[in-house]
Amino acid sequence: NAGVTQTPKFQVLKTGQSMTLQCAQDMNHNSMYWYRQDPGMGLRLIYYSASEGTTDKGEVPNGYNVSRLNKREFSLRLESAAPSQTSVYFCASSARSTSGGEQFFGPGTRLTVL
Amino acid sequence: QKEVEQNSGPLSVPEGAIASLNCTYSDRGSQSFFWYRQYSGKSPELIMSIYSNGDKEDGRFTAQLNKASQYVSLLIRDSQPSDSATYLCAVMAGGGNKLTFGTGTQLKVEL
């Protein structure tokens, strides 16, 4: 089992460029999440998908879109990158979305927007 | 007021000592509590979950939950240099589906 995988590991973008971060899990989990982590801010939820076919906004959704492609895959898209989106992005998955659902994280994508 | 609060540290303890990490939360309806360990440059790794008042032990780790006082703590016995990391507290509201994270406490275990 690979667990949660993310691609790419590192990315440098120029302001205004677009890109998609990919996430996949092989644990047959129902729920998937995208977080960003910034110094002093902790982990903040961008978007989540409680189950295949559903997506919902988290704490900081502006500037991002997501797609739950199937049960395994959940992608995060930056349509027009801004320097404020420089961050480390983590994808996570959970067997269930309600209380008690332990979340497991991928290795992260380190994104720099110039 | 932050929803989940942790002292940022660094908390320094000598090797072999007990490290005590604390976390308070504001939502009284919270039902699920988690501790993650994060090494520098790595992703968070789940080390403990606790759902009911009292203590839960797993190896050298003990999680303690007190819902009346709205705090959760993590004790690490016989601390090792390999325990040096940032520890994140995470809380999920009852019936909810989102985790709220604290900003983490940096632990340094010194030889």
Question: How would you describe the overall organization of this protein?
Answer:
The complex is a heterodimer of chains A (114) and B (111). By secondary structure, chain A is an all-beta fold. Chain A contains no helices and eleven strands. In chain A, the strands form two sheets. In chain A, strands 2, 4, 5, 6, 9, 10 and 11 form a seven-stranded mixed beta sheet that branches. A four-stranded antiparallel beta sheet of chain A has the order 1-3-8-7, with no helix packed on it. In chain A, a hairpin with a 3-residue loop joins strand 4 and strand 5. The N and C termini of chain A lie far apart (36 Å). The model of chain A has no long low-confidence stretch (mean pLDDT 93). Chain B is mainly β and 111 residues long. Helix content of chain B is 0%, strand content 57%. Chain B is built from no helices and eleven strands. In chain B, the strands form two sheets. In chain B, strands 2, 4, 5, 9, 10 and 11 form a six-stranded mixed beta sheet that branches. In chain B, a hairpin with a 5-residue loop joins strand 9 and strand 10. At the A-B interface, strand 5 and strand 10 of A face strand 4, strand 5 and strand 9 of B.
Summarize the structure.
The complex is a heterodimer of chains A (114) and B (111). By secondary structure, chain A is an all-beta fold. Chain A has strands at residues 4-7, 10-13, 19-25, 31-38, 42-49, 56-57, 64-68, 74-78, 87-94, 103-105, 109-113.
Keywords for this entry:
A: mainly beta; 11 strands; 0% helix; 52% strand; B: 111 residues; mainly beta; six-stranded mixed β-sheet; five-stranded antiparallel β-sheet
Sheet of most strands of chain B: 6 strands, mixed
The radius of gyration over CA of chain B amounts to 13 Å
Please state the structural category of chain B. mainly beta
Anisotropy-based shape of chain A: globular
The average pLDDT value of chain A, as a whole number, equals 93
Low-confidence sequence ranges of chain B: none
- Could you say which overall geometry of chain B the principal axes of the C-alpha atoms support? globular
Give the oligomeric state.
Answer: heterodimer
Distance from N terminus to C terminus of chain A (CA atoms, Å) equals 36 Å
User: How many runs of DSSP E, i.e. beta strands of chain B?
Assistant: 11
Low-confidence stretches of chain A: none
Overall average residue pLDDT of chain B: 94
